[in-house]
Give the backbone structure.
Amino acid sequence: MIMDTAMPRIRTEVQVMFFDTDCGGVVSNIAYLRFIEIARTLLAEELGLALAEMAETQRYPVVVHTEIDYCRAAKLGDRLVIEGWLDQLERARFWCAFRIARPKDSMLIAECRQSLALIEMPAGKLLRLPESWEKYRSPRNGGL
């Protein structure tokens, strides 16, 4: 999917720790999703969804669908860069995309795309996306 350059984008770094790996020192598949969770939380803040505010309003983004392609293995001690961006908007759902890379050898480690929705707790009520996000909508990034 073509990314609109005006879309919010974040970049963060992690170092692979013992608890991220299996007995061979290779990163476990679930650890990549934790790295993406960190990036997604930072991206949410860029979109105006600060953690403290979510707790006050009881409005949260929830993951509806995850697609991930594992391209190369990361290993114990590797320093990884995770980039994330708002990829597509729909009426009540939005897509974020992520790329995990190892800078020391320019290797792409994994790519991920997630569909999310905003809900209000405790009822679990589905919400429309904020009007302030309309500025990110364009013919190139889809949506209604």
Observations:
- The CA atoms of residues 70 and 110 lie 5 Å apart.
- The domain at 9-141 is CATH 3.10.129.10 (Thiol Ester Dehydrase; Chain A).
- Helices lie at 29-46, 51-57.
